[in-house]
Amino acid sequence: MRPIGLQLYTLRKPFAADPLGTLSRIRETGYDAVEFAAPLGSDFAGFAARMAEVGLDCPSAHVGLTDMADHPDAVLDMGRTLGCRYLVMPYVLPDQRDWTAVIATLGAFASRARGEGFRVAYHHHDFEFETTEGVRPFDRLVAETDPAFVDFELDLYWLCKGGEEPKAFIDSMAGRVRLIHLKDMAPDGGMADVGAGTLDFQTLIQAADAAGAEHFFVEHDFPPSPGWPSVEASLGHLRGLG
Predict the structure, then answer these.
(1) What SS3 class is residue 233?
(2) Counting CB atoms within 10 angstroms of each CB, which of 123, 126, 155, 190 has the fewest?
(3) Is-above-0.85 flag for pTM?
C-alpha cells in the first residue's frame, strides 16, 4: 500500500497544543509520514523520538526563505534530527518577491544542503503563475535553478488556482517533481477534503508516479475544527483508490 503523509500545517492548532499526542494520533489514524512545518528552535529531538516510537517517517520539512538565508546551520541540524531527505521552501512573502534574489538564495542553500545529504525543493502557490515583467516566476524558478540541486513540490489545488490543468502540468515537470501536496478543490473554488471536490486523484497520482514523485502529503489549509475529521476523510478516500 502506498505510503501517505500529512503536512502538519493542516493540524497546526492541535499540534501547537499537544505536539507529541498529535504525532501519535496521526500515526493511529493511518498516516505513514508527516511533513514538518515548525519554527526553528522547536524540540525536534523530542518530536523525532516520538516519531521513531510510533513508526512515523519524516521525509521533508518546510523551511522559510529567511531561515535558509540567515540560519542554514540550524535548518540543516533540524533536517538531520528529523531524518528529512528534503528541505522545502514553502512560501515567499509579498515583500520578499524579488525573484532574482529568491532564486539565488534557493540555489546557494540547495548547493550546501546537497553536500550534506539533502535535496531542496520549492513549493508553489498561485501567485508564481502570474506574469511579472513579461515572465511567470514559476517558469523562472524552473529555468534558473539547477536540476541537480533543486526539485519541486507541486500542490494540486494551487495548480488549479493558478490556471493550470494539473495532469498536464505534472507531465511537463517529469524529472523535477519529487513531492506532491494532495489537496482538493471544491466546485466553488475553495479547498475541500481529498475526494470531496473536483479532482481525479487516481489519475493525478498515477501521473505523479510517472513523473518521478516520491512522497505524497495530504494538506488542507483551513480544515473545519477540530481538523481530525478532515484528515481522516482524506486518507479514507486515498486508501480506497487502492
Answers:
(1) helix
(2) 190
(3) yes
